[in-house]
C-alpha cells in the first residue's frame, strides 16, 4: 500500500508539566493534519564562481541512531500502515561534525531541515519518549554535555521549545556564545537544553541546522534569529553558499563526507555543474515546523526509458538525513521492476524488498538538463537479517505518494553520487558528478 500526504492525519505531540512532588511526566495529545507550501526565495547575490574551493571544510562522520527524526523520511513514515522495520533499519544513520562552543568541543548532528543550533547541558532532565516519565540521563544517549561558560549570555524571555515528528522533545534556554566552526568563530545565538525526550546515538550532544530561514520556537510564538551559516555570511566571513559531498562506504564513526562553508571542498569533480532554482518547502502541522531545500527535476530514466512525468509539478526535497530516494508511486514501481530479479513492494515493511545479489538497473536523475547516474551500490541497501539469519536488503528507491499528494525526496541514494552546492545567496542549487 502506498501513501499520500493527505493521510497524515494522526500524530501525537507532547506538552510537558512538572511538579516538585512527582516525576516529570509528558502528556500526549492529538495534532492537526500536515500541510506543505513550496516557494522560491529571492536571490541577494550573483552565483558564486562554480569552482571556488574554500579552506573552511568540515569532515562529516556517520552516526547510527534510532532513525533521524529531523529527516524528510520521518514525515513519510507517519503515513505507513505497516511496521516499516526494514525502512527503519536502512534509515538508522545520520551525519555529524565537530564544533566548539565557548571552550568546549562537541559532536553535533547536521540538519538541512532546521535552523536551530542547540546542545544539551550537563544537569539536564531526561524524559523517556515511550513512557513520558523522568529517567536516568544515560537513557537519552547524548554525547558530552555542555557546561555553560561564564561567556554564555542568557537572553531573557526567550526559550527553546522543539518538538520533532517522532515524539522527541527539547526545551531549555536561549543565549549567545562564541561558536567556532570550520576555523571561523562568531558570536551566535544557541539553545541550551534543560529537558530532553530524545533518541540519542551516544556520540552527538546536539544539532546544527543549515536551513535557509531562521526561527526558534518560544513557548508562545516564533522568535527570529540568524542560524550560524547566515551569521557567517552576513559578517562577510564566507560567501553565502555551502556544499556537501557524501562518501559511499562509510561505516559508523568513520569519515562520511565533507561540508564546505563558502565554496567547494578540495575534491575531484567530474564534468560541469548544472543549476536549478532553490525552492523552500515549508511542512507545517506537526509540533515541529520543517523547512527543506527543494528542487524541480526534469525527470528520471531507467535503462532506455525516460520518465519526464517524474518532474513537472512535483518538487523534490534535497535531504542528506534521508537514506533513500522517494519518487511518485508509479515511478518507484517502474524503477524497482527493472531490478533482476525485480524488487517487490512489501506492504508490511513499507519498502521494496530486493535480493541482496540482484542486478540494479541503470538509473539516473536529470536536473538542469544533465543526468546524474546512480551507482548500483547505492540502489541496494542492507536492512539487517531475517528470522533465519539471512541478509535482507531493500531498494534505495521508495514510493513517496501520488503526484500532487506525496513528499518526494532526493536522499543519500542520490547525494552519494554528486557534489551538491546550496547557493543560498543566488537562490540556486548546483550539482556535479562526484569522482
Q: How are the secondary structure elements laid out?
A:
Blueprint: E1 12-17, E2 25-30, E3 35-39, E4 57-63, H1 72-77, H2 85-90, E5 94-101, E6 104-111, E7 117-127, E8 134-135, E9 153-163, E10 169-181, E11 184-197, E12 206-209, E13 216-217, E14 222-223, H3 228-234, E15 241-246, E16 255-261, E17 269-277, E18 279-284, E19 290-296, E20 299-302, E21 305-307, E22 315-318, E23 325-327, H4 329-337, E24 344-346, E25 351-354, E26 363-367, E27 370-373, E28 380-385, E29 391-395, E30 397-399, E31 408-410, H5 412-415, E32 418-423, E33 428-434
Report on the structure:
This protein has helices at residues 72-77, 85-90, 228-234, 329-337, 412-415, and strands spanning 12-17, 25-30, 35-39, 57-63, 94-101, 104-111, 117-127, 134-135, 153-163, 169-181, 184-197, 206-209, 216-217, 222-223, 241-246, 255-261, 269-277, 279-284, 290-296, 299-302, 305-307, 315-318, 325-327, 344-346, 351-354, 363-367, 370-373, 380-385, 391-395, 397-399, 408-410, 418-423, 428-434. It has a domain at 268-434: Cathepsin D, subunit A, domain 1 (Beta Barrel), CATH 2.40.70. The chain is globular, with a radius of gyration of 21 Å. The longest helix is centred in the C-terminal third of the chain and has 9 residues, at 329-337. The chain contains 5 helices and 33 strands. It is mainly beta. The active site is at 111, 319.
Amino acid at each position: 500500500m502506498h501513501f499520500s500526504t493527505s493521510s497524515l492525519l494522526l500524530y501525537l505531540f507532547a506538552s510537558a508539566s512538572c511538579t516538585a512532588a512527582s516525576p516529570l511526566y509528558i502528556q500526549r495529545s492529538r495534532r492537526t493534519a500536515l500541510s506543505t507550501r513550496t516557494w522560491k526565495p529571492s536571490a541577494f547575490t550573483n552565483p558564486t564562481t562554480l569552482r571556488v574551493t574554500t579552506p573552511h571544510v568540515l569532515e562529516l562522520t556517520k552516526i547510527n541512531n534510532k532513525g533521524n527524526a529531523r529527516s524528510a523520511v520521518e514525515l513519510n513514515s507517519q503515513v505507513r500502515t505497516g511496521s516499516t522495520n526494514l525502512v527503519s533499519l536502512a534509515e538508522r544513520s545520520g551525519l555529524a561534525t565537530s564544533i566548539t562552543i565557548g571552550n568546549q568541543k562537541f559532536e553535533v548532528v547536521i540538519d538541512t531541515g532546521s535552523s536551530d543550533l542547540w546542545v544539551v547541558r550537563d544537569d539536564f532532565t531526561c524524559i523517556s519518549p515511550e513512557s513520558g516519565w523522568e529517567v536516568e540521563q544515560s537513557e537519552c544517549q547524548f554525547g558530552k554535555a555542555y557546561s555553560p561558560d561564564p561567556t554564555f549570555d542568557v537572553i531573557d524571555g526567550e526559550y527553546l521549545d522543539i518538538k520533532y515528528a517522532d515524539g522527541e522533545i527539547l526545551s531549555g534556554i536561549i543565549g549567545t556564545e562564541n561558536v567556532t566552526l570550520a576555523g571561523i568563530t562568531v558570536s551566535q545565538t544557541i539553545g541550551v537544553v534543560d529537558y530532553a525526550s530524545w533518541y540519542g546515538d551516544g556520540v552527538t550532544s546536539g544539532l546544527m541546522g543549515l536551513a535557509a530561514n531562521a526561527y526558534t520556537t518560544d513557548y508562545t510564538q516564533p522568535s527570529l534569529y540568524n542560524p550560524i551559516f547566515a551569521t557567517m555570511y552576513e559578517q562577510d566571513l564566507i560567501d553565502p553558499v555551502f556544499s556537501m559531498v557524501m562518501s559511499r562506504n562509510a561505516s559508523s564513526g568513520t569519515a562520511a563526507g565533507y561540508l564546505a562553508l563558502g565554496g567547494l571542498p578540495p575534491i575531484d569533480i567530474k564534468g560541469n555543474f548544472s543549476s536549478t532554482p532553490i525552492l523552500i518547502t515549508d511542512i507545517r502541522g506537526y509540533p515541529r515546523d520543517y523547512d527543506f531545500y527543494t528542487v524541480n527535476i526534469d525527470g528520471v530514466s531507467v535503462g532506455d526509458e525516460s520518465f519526464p512525468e517524474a518532474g513537472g509539478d512535483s518538487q523534490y526535497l534535497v535531504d542528506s538525513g534521508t537514506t533513500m530516494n522517494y519518487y511518485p508511486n508509479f515511478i518507484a514501481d517502474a524503477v524497482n521492476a527493472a531490478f533482476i530479479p525485480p524488487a517487490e513492494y512489501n506492504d508490511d515493511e513499507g519498502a521494496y524488498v530486493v535480493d541482496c545479489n540482484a542486478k540494479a538497473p541503470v538509473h539516473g536523475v536529470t536536473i538542469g538538463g544533465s543526468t546524474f547516474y546512480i551507482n548500483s551500490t547505492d540502489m541496494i541497501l542492507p536492512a539487517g537479517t531475517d528470522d533465519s539469519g539471512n541478509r535482507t536488503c531493500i531498494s534505495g528507491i521508495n514510493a513517496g505518494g501520488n503526484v500532487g499528494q506525496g513528499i518526494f525526496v532526493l536522499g543519500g541514494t542520490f547525494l552519494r553520487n554528486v557534489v551538491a552546492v546550496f547557493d543560498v545567496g543566488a537562490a540556486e542549487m548546483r550539482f556535479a558528478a562526484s569522482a
